[in-house]
Amino acid sequence: MAQAAPTSGGMPRSGRTPDVFSAQAHARSRVAIPVVTGLIYGYWAAANRRSGGPITGWNLLFGFLTALVFAVVLFAVLTWAPRLRRELHAVVWTAFVGIAFGFLFSQSGDSVLTSIAISLAVAAVTFILMFYRFYTHEDAAGNRIR
Q1: pTM assigned to the model
Q2: How many other C-beta atoms are found inside a 10 Å radius of the C-beta of residue 86?
Q3: Torsion angle of alpha carbons 57, 33, 44, 64, nearest 10°?
Q4: Is 11 in a helix, a strand, or coil?
Q5: Are 85 and 141 in contact (CB under 8 A)?
Q6: Fewer CB within 10 Å: C terminus or N terminus of the chain?
Q7: Contact call for residues 61 and 53 (beta carbons, < 8 A)
Q8: What is the mean pLDDT of each run of 10 residues along the chain (146 residues)?
Q9: Is the CB of residue 86 less than 8 Å from the CB of residue 138?
Q10: Which H/E stretch holds residue 90?
Q11: φ, ψ (nearest 5 deg) of residue 12
């Protein structure tokens, strides 16, 4: 008979919370999260582009193409960025979030300079947050320490 892992107050002694999802659920979420997030992003970009006007075929095409590109790039970032060192990992997320936000903001019809300024501000905040997170949760080789 297999013995249960020793616990301390409901938590495993390793200090990590137990994984309640199966490997199959994790595999599905690796695909589902970029797809669902891409659809939301594509809808948002299409809605910004039409500025409250009627939904047209070109608007739908734009939304679905935007969703496809966003989902593919997000899937790539989620797959390959964790293999990088923590500094580059933060830079990849910074570039992704800054570009995605800048593109979304540019669809609203505001000036290009405003779009650039706001996306750079969002990218700077993203870099600070991601660098702090990766610096406190990974060693220099990129291995998780917590």
Answers
A1: 0.79
A2: 21
A3: -20
A4: strand
A5: yes
A6: N
A7: no
A8: 53 66 84 94 92 87 96 95 88 96 91 93 96 82 67
A9: yes
A10: helix 86-106
A11: -60, 150
